[in-house]
Amino acid sequence: MPTHFPDYYMITGKFKDKNDFRAKLETALQQGNKIVQLRCKNIEDTSEYLELAKIAERVCKQYDAILLLATSLEIFNQSQAAGLHLTSQSLHQYERRPVNSDKLLSVSCHTEDDMQRANELGADILLLSPVKETSSHPGVPGIGWEQFNTMVSTVQRPVYALGGMEAADLEDAHKAGAQGIAAISSFWK
Q1: Nearest Cα to Cα of residue 73 among 94, 55, 59
Q2: Do strands 66-69 and 104-109 pair parallel, antiparallel, or not at all (unpaired)?
Q3: For residues 145 and 132, what is the distance between their CA atoms, to the nearest angstrom?
Q4: How many CA atoms lie within 13 A of 112 on its CB side?
Q5: What's the predicted TM-score (pTM) here?
Q6: Phi and psi of 150, rounded to 5°?
Q7: Do residues 40 and 18 make contact, with C-beta atoms less than 8 angstroms apart?
Q8: Which of the listed CATH numbers 3.40.50.300, 3.30.70.260, 3.90.1150.10, 3.20.20.70 matches domain 8-183?
Q9: 34-86 tens-digit pLDDT
Q10: Domain spans of the chain?
């Protein structure tokens, strides 16, 4: 288990096929990303997801990066990934931490209630969003840095700012109490 987490938390984005996925992941890791969340909302086939997870496991190991899977606990348990990522919706399904303490637990949060629940479950990493308006959710206002700071002050866990983040936002994120920034489009190219 890392005692310190890096500044950047990358979430995988769109890709054409397995070769494109591997190439984009390698490019992102060559640029220094050290945490990868494998998120494939459009893949419902378990074997296809696990195949991508195995590719990601090999590539992340090569670059000494942490791999988190945004999937069900059942699928996660079939992998060798370092941790599980829960959406804010799935967060409230669990009465206790769904993975052992030797695995990381990452959680997406949008409200103070989500953050409290993640804290109760012993989450290792929180993603708080949206900080800014995003292209994926146009018209949904971000919480802004002041509200972000207020919300992260209630938990003693590393929190990444998510939502409209660019590498240039890192200084503002740190000033607001963030571990760093999480993003798709800034890192996944």
Answers
A1: 94
A2: unpaired
A3: 9
A4: 7
A5: 0.94
A6: -60, -45
A7: no
A8: 3.20.20.70
A9: 999 999 988 888 999 999 999 999 999 999 999 999 999 999 999 999 999 99
A10: 8-183
